[in-house]
Backbone:
């Protein structure tokens, strides 16, 4: 469902040297699986996801999502993905219902279909109480539910989630994680980038550890445990990153 | 572009903006409350201040006591006696109140004399309004001293000082004139003899002309003000709130997004400006400011004095104006990452808009020459001329609207190119640097629409100016104009686009379509090039039935004929056929058409390139026929996949014209009338020409196989190659 091959992104920096934000990343995610991208700040997770969702053009390499190359067919790729980040904003002066209908129409739905899909999502995500309030007046949890609804409006086969639980309270956090599990059960392909290692440990079928723009390790949690001989993901992570730094020296 | 999707975005943005209190306040409260208050308050304050100055006491300074006591005061007392007698005489003969009111009050009633050792210093520090100096020997004290000479000292930049001096001068003049008249009468001479010519002024004013000077400029300000907030909110505001990323991940082409947003900003700008105009008009009418605006019913040249017709006229000109302003604002704001950054970008743009607007608002500026295509200035002048009822040619009107639409379209294209680029979306990408850094530019096959369009829009007024300047420089010698055009054309139409293509690593071969054409396409080019003049002539004849050829064009054609006959054939062919064919085809069918194909279907791209081609010929009368030829050239170029066919066709078409002009016997042979240039061609010429075109269409209708396999370079939102 997702094939990433040697993806590269170079940014020029103020001192004139190029920064390789993503440096030859390759991986593959099959349908119905959750692929975790883990790494410290600046590891290249967000840049990778932005390239996968067609927001950034790769300097080199290829990414194929749902059979479409993101460089040559970005519209088809965008048609196939739902994108959700912790920073995703909502239109403050529109209601959640307005937002869902609007994005439905942007995905090519006619008005009746967009309204029906919005009503379906409002019911499913239990948004009836606040569906017609303005987004500016919603609580963080209500906003997140609206954002989830927005990402799912076209019922895409692929979900790209960039730190979706960042800064959420326990209840909202639970809501997001339940939603991710439910989508996997329905056969969706999910890429999850997160800082929270325990979250990745319980949710992801496969994990890639990113450091300085490159994948330093990839595999199931069991494979990574066997490779490092440590139990907890945080220790695995530290060990691999440390090894990478030693190798660099 | 998908109209339905652009409409969805338009409706959503409009709802979003209209739910914002700040927009509503700026759009409704400002014009309805603020402007009436400012206008009424300002005008009343200004006029009451002038009245106050007229009636307030003036302080006249002098350095020596005798100057005042022996010279000025007696003169002012004389004025008082004079006016008192005049008033008494008027009352005695039963003059009405108006006549009595016209007799001035003696200045002595309002004057204070002040002795000062430092007269000039006192005037500068405003303790006296003006000063009087009388030199000994010129004070009228001796019988031989028949003339008193006074020097009145004023501070030029002080309004009060100037007004005080004028009042003093007027009082003293009155005494002087009375003394002169008395002396002349004593000598039994008619006093009128010393003033053999009397000049009086009667100043006509067209109702609405003052309004016409002010209103367009207010319009510029109001439209800009109306567009600023929504333009920032829908671009930089969207990024700042985090909704832009969400929007850009939707499967919607950027052009749809930007057109929807552009329509919303334009709507708000039009509503805001219309409210402002309505408010200004109502304030003028109900606030009794007609006189201040030269709309006094008693003024000559008008019926009821108030130009009601101005309202729909202004509204009409407001639309292209608002379209242009909104497009510019959107293009500028699309480059900004934050609200604050957008505000910083907007300020210089407003200044740039105000400069041509301000120049156009000057009374001496006319809507002619290069001003017709100067953005903003041309609209201000058009509105002014419409309001003042000045004679306005249809061609001028069309050029103003056409050039404004062109600039607006290019601004929208630029906004579409910039909006959603990663340099704007993500602060961490430093892509502005990347965009300018040649080493990071990825090679691309075609120029972008915004790059090609922006250059075309820049070149349009420049080429207009070059042509006008050439005509002036060589004193309208057409042969010289043609020679210099042939020298400059390669620079602007070929050199600059080639340099741009080279810098941005664009495939020059693909962009300019330099591929070798097939023989059948070359044959089609030859046939069309030799035969197209005949149907083109018939189209001109048809057009002549409805619109007469403007005298300027007829004169220009005559001058062209003379110039072509006077120069050697090789030179005439080079300047009329060869150079324009190579340069114009490389630009319109190569550079511009490649850029247009990135955003539009081939048919639309050909039409736009043909319209630009026709517009660059600067004669609205020739626009339709030139555009048809442009369409044929574009079709042939895309069918053959080569610009050489278009160059060949263009050169032959123009070459035929040169041959017909130089050898009139050929004109007779093909049936062109020497006496009536607008007579139809005989069937013996027309039928073979049409047959030739039919054959050309038949052999060229199949595209070049290599061209048919190429896909149109449709741009995508993720396209961030940093190319033009």
Residues:
């Amino acid at each position: 469902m997702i094939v990433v091959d040697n993806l590269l992104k170079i940014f020029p920096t103020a001192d004139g040297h190029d920064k390789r934000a993503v440096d030859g990343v390759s991986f593959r995610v099959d349908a119905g699986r959750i692929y975790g991208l883990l790494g410290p700040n600046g590891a290249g997770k967000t840049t990778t996801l932005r390239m996968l969702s067609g927001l950034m053009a790769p300097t080199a390499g290829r990414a194929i999502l749902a059979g479409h190359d993101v460089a040559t067919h970005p519209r088809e790729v965008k048609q196939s993905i739902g994108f959700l980040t912790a920073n995703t904003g909502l239109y403050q002066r529109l209601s959640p219902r307005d937002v869902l209908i609007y994005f439905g129409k942007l995905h090519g739905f006619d008005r009746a279909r967009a309204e029906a899909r919005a009503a379906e999502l409002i019911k499913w995500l239990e948004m009836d109480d606040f569906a017609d309030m303005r987004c500016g007046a919603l609580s963080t949890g209500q906003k997140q539910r609206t954002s989830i609804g927005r990402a799912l409006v076209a019922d895409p086969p692929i979900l790209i989630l960039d730190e979706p639980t960042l800064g959420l309270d326990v209840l909202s956090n639970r809501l997001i994680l339940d939603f991710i599990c439910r989508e996997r059960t329905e056969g969706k392909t999910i890429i999850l980038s997160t800082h929270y290692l325990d979250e990745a440990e319980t949710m992801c079928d496969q994990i890639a550890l990113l450091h300085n723009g490159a994948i330093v390790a990839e595999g199931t949690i069991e494979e990574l445990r066997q490779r490092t001989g440590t139990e907890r993901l945080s220790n695995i992570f530290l060990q691999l990153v440390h090894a990478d730094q030693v190798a660099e020296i | 572009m998908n109209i339905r999707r652009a409409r969805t975005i338009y409706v959503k943005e409009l709802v979003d903006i209209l739910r914002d209190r700040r927009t509503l306040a700026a759009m409704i409260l400002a014009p309805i409350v603020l402007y009436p208050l400012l206008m009424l308050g300002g005008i009343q304050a200004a006029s009451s201040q002038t009245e106050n100055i007229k009636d307030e006491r003036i302080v006249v300074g002098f350095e020596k006591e005798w100057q005042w006591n022996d010279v000025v005061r007696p003169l002012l007392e004389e004025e008082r006696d004079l006016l008192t007698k005049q008033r008494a005489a008027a009352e005695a003969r039963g003059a009405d109140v108006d006549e009595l009111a016209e007799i001035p009050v003696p200045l002595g009633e309002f004057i204070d004399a002040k002795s000062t050792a430092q007269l000039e210093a006192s005037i500068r520090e405003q303790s006296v309004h003006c000063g009087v100096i009388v030199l000994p020997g010129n004070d009228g004290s001796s019988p031989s001293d028949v003339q008193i000479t006074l020097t009145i000292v004023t501070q030029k930049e002080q309004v009060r000082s100037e007004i005080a001096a004028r009042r003093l001068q007027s009082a003293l003049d009155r005494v002087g004139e009375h003394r002169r008249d008395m002396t002349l009468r004593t000598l039994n001479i008619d006093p009128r003899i010393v003033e053999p010519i009397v000049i009086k002024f009667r100043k006509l004013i067209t109702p609405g002309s003052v309004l016409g000077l002010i209103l367009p400029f207010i319009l510029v300000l109001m439209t800009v003000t109306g567009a600023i907030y929504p333009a920032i909110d829908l671009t930089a505001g969207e990024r700042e709130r985090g909704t832009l990323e969400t929007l850009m991940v939707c499967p919607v082409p950027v052009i749809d997004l930007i057109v929807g947003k552009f329509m919303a900003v334009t709507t708000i700008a039009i509503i805001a400006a219309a409210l402002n105009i309505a408010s200004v008009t109502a304030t003028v009418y109900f606030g009794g400011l007609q006189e201040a605006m030269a709309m006094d019913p008693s003024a000559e040249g008008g019926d009821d004095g108030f130009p009601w017709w101005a309202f729909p006229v202004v509204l009409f000109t407001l639309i292209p104006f608002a379209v242009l302003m909104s497009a510019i604002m959107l293009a500028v704001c699309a480059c900004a990452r934050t609200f604050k950054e957008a505000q910083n970008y907007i300020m210089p743009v407003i200044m740039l808009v105000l400069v041509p607007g301000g120049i156009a608002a000057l009374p001496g500026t006319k809507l002619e020459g290069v001003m017709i295509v100067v953005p903003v200035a041309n609209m201000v002048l058009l509105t002014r001329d419409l309001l003042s009822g000045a004679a306005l040619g249809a061609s001028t009107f069309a050029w103003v609207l056409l050039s404004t639409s062109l600039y607006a379209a290019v601004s929208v294209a630029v906004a579409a190119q910039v909006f959603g680029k990663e340099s704007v979306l993500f602060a961490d990408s430093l892509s502005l640097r990347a965009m300018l850094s040649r080493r990071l530019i990825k090679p691309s096959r075609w120029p972008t629409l915004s790059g090609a369009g922006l250059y075309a829009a820049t070149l349009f007024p420049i080429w207009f100016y070059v042509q006008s300047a050439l005509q002036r420089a060589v004193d309208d010698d057409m042969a010289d104009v043609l020679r210099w055009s042939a020298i400059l054309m390669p620079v602007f139409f070929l050199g600059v686009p080639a340099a741009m293509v080279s810098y941005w690593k664009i495939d020059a071969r693909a962009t300019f379509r330099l591929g070798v054409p097939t023989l059948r396409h070359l044959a089609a080019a030859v046939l069309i090039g030799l035969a197209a003049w005949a149907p083109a002539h018939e189209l001109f004849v048809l057009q002549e039935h409805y619109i007469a050829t403007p005298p300027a064009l007829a004169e220009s054609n005559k001058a062209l004929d003379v110039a072509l006959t006077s120069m050697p054939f090789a030179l005439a062919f080079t300047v009329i056929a060869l150079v324009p064919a190579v340069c114009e085809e490389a630009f319109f069918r190569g550079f511009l058409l490649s850029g247009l194909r990135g955003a539009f279907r081939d048919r639309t791209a050909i039409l736009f390139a043909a319209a630009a081609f026709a517009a660059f010929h600067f004669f609205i009368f020739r626009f339709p026929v030139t555009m048809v030829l442009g369409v044929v050239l574009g079709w042939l170029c895309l069918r053959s996949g080569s610009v050489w066919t278009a160059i060949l066709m263009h050169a032959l078409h123009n070459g035929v014209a040169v041959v017909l002009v130089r050898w009139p016997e050929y004109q007779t042979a093909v049936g062109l009338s020497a006496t009536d240039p607008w007579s139809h061609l005989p069937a013996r010429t027309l039928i073979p020409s049409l047959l030739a075109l039919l054959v050309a269409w038949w052999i060229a209708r199949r595209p070049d196989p290599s061209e048919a396999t190429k896909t149109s370079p449709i741009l995508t939102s993720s396209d961030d190659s940093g190319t033009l």
Remarks:
- Confidence is low (pLDDT under 50) at residues 294-303, 708-724 of chain B.
- Chain B has three domains: 1-52+206-436, 56-194, 438-724.
